[in-house]
Amino acid sequence: MKKLPVILSLLLLSSGAAFAQKKPAAKAPAKKPTAGVSPALLAAGKAVYTQNCLSCHQADGGGVDGMNPPLTKTDYVLGDKPRLIGVLLNGLKGLEINGEEYRSVMPAQTHLTEQQMADVLTYVRNSFGNKASAVTVGEVKAARAAKK
Amino acid sequence: MKNHLTRPLLLAAAVASSFGLYSLTSRPTVAPDADNAGLKLPAGFGALVVAETGARARHIAVTPQGTIYVKLNRAKDGKGILELKPTAGGKATVAGGFGSYGGTGIYAKGGYLYASSDEDVYRYKLDAKGEVTNPAQPEKIVSGLLNRGEHESKSIVLDNAGNLYVNVGAYSNSCQEKDREKGSMGRPGCPILDSAGGIWQFRADKLGQTYGTGTRFATGLRNVVGLDWNAQNNQLFVMQHGRDQLHDIFPAMYDTKQSAELPAECLYALTKGANAGWPYLYYDPVKKQKILAPEYGGDGKKLADAKYLDPAAAYPAHTAPDGLLFYTGTMFPAKYRNGAFIAFHGSWNRAPEPQKGYYVVFQPFQNGKPSGPWEVFADNFAGSAEKVASGRADHKPCGLAQGPDGSLYVSDDKAGTIYRIVYNQK
Questions:
Q1: From the CA of B419, how many Å to the nearest CA of chain A?
Q2: Residue of A53, A54, A65, A116 best to disrupt the B interface, most CBs of B under 10 A
Q3: Beta bridge partners of B57
Q4: What is the rounded radius of gyration, in angstroms, for the C-alpha atoms of chain A?
Q5: Residue B76 — left, alpha, or beta (φ > 0 → left; ψ -120 to 50 → alpha)?
């Protein structure tokens, strides 16, 4: 069941861009959002985002004025990875981003697995116009160990 | 060029006279903008942009002489309150500002202008021209109101007996052990209610009151932003912002569609000691029942204890009612008199379903009670249907005030536009 959308989107991609059947990594199509992050990984991250993040941060990642911070054009998302992972591990409150205050509470997302945390952070860092390196399970593990 | 301009004018005049309603004597002194400020209104109404403040405009007050005071969410250039003076044609210009604090509440009554930060309430003396005389030295009426960041705004209103009512919102969504965390259950005997989640009453003319000396007027209200005194039956009415995230927190009980439609945003008629039941319940607008909150053992069906106050009226979920005004003017047709206007700031917590709101609603009243269905009165603050659905609205209505001539003023918490809605048919 879970694999179906991934396979479907791969099919769509290949039919649309007339890819070779070998390896898509070598010649990435221009509209692919980022290099080095596979569509499957992004799809997995998107599923986690939709279930756990979307209602506050919104489908476009733009957040909500004065309440829920945007995930676009912010150093919190694009910068230091341990700090970003820490937001999922610890939650966050009382934040000012680009001169705007955000009042809502971000609850810790510790019900997510380390794999889900890595997936969703990779998705967020490579969606809504963002482009940054993937977050690995190893990095999530390391951040969690450092917290203890 | 000239022909192009005069032709539509002639046409419009011909159309107007053909309805037989147009006469020179009934021409309004306040002219609506050609596009009605971008708003969609019932027939006979028009709107104009009074001024652009360029700041997040929260509540708004108009003195009997027509001076407009706008409370800003955050001080701009050191000014948290803007003073707008009327100019020709019903518009106004920003004449200045004062009060270095941000906030929400502002209200004019009995020769004073009252304004709130997120912790304190001040008052300023108004002179015979309806202008503030002591902008730099307000009297501090109340200090030390609880502000823990969430639901921080302190909306204010006065009754006709010298009392001031202040909302202190609950610093929580649903009093969970861990706020907004998936599956986290409610704190037993929700201790937040000891110090927040209700309406406090103070004396409007007594200086130096503190949080602790206020009277707890009502409890079990999660967060109230819009409130007004109904002079017809001498009663305080408030609009509660209902709880968020039923699906996020309890996905096994609520799907995203149910979560978008639950719970209703509710209007409550309060008497002293009223308890509206937050966080133990929410109101289901389809079942028309008070449902036990899942944080406190509910399953989406179990009813809450009947002892809690029933809402006086219910509106679509998550649409964020930020302004409430009982209309007492005579400019609008008779059906509007003593009814309620409600400014819905617009939703965010309906995602992934389309967002909703960004309009001003009219709720008919009779003998001080809601009577008949509500209707959308002023729409299209967002700018388009797409901007409503995405939540990326151009303007978000927040505060409401009645002008001395019976015009309805609306403030905008997004771009800072100040609107004025007038009725032109006679």
A1: 21
A2: A65
A3: B72
A4: 16
A5: beta
Contact A66 B152 (CB under 8 A): no
How high is the pLDDT of residue A94? 76
Q: Report the chain B residue with the minimal C-alpha distance to residue A93.
A: B149
Residues B322, B57, B100, B51, Cα dihedral to 10°: -150
* Cβ–Cβ gap A50/B150 under 8 Å: no
- Would you state the pLDDT for residue A100? 83
CB contact (8 A) between residue B182 and residue A66: no
How much is the pLDDT for A35?
Answer: 55
Closest to B71 in 3D by CA, of B37, B109, B39, B100 = B100
Rounded CA separation B116/B194 (Å): 22
Residue spans per domain, chain A: 44-147
Fold of A44-147: Cytochrome Bc1 Complex; Chain D, domain 2 (1.10.760)
Is A7's pLDDT higher than 60? no
B 251-270 residues inside an 8 A Cβ radius of A: 251, 256, 259
> Considering only residues 5 to 44 of chain A, which have any Cβ-Cβ distance to chain B shorter than 8 Å?
none
What CA–CA distance (Å, rounded) separates B75 from B90?
Answer: 26
A–B: how many Cβ contacts below 8 A?
62
How much is the pLDDT for A95?
A: 78
| ipTM exceeding the 0.90 mark | no
Judged by a CB distance cut-off of 8 A, whether residue A58 touches chain B is: yes
A97-121 average pLDDT score:
92
Q: Which residues of chain B have pLDDT under 50?
A: 1-28
- Interatomic CA distance for residues B235 and A146, integer angstroms: 57
Which residues of chain B are within 8 Å of residue A111 when distances are taken between CB atoms? 182-183
Give the pLDDT score at B34.
95
What radius of gyration, in Å, describes the C-alpha atoms of chain B?
22
Domains and CATH numbers, chain B: 33-423 (2.120.10.30)
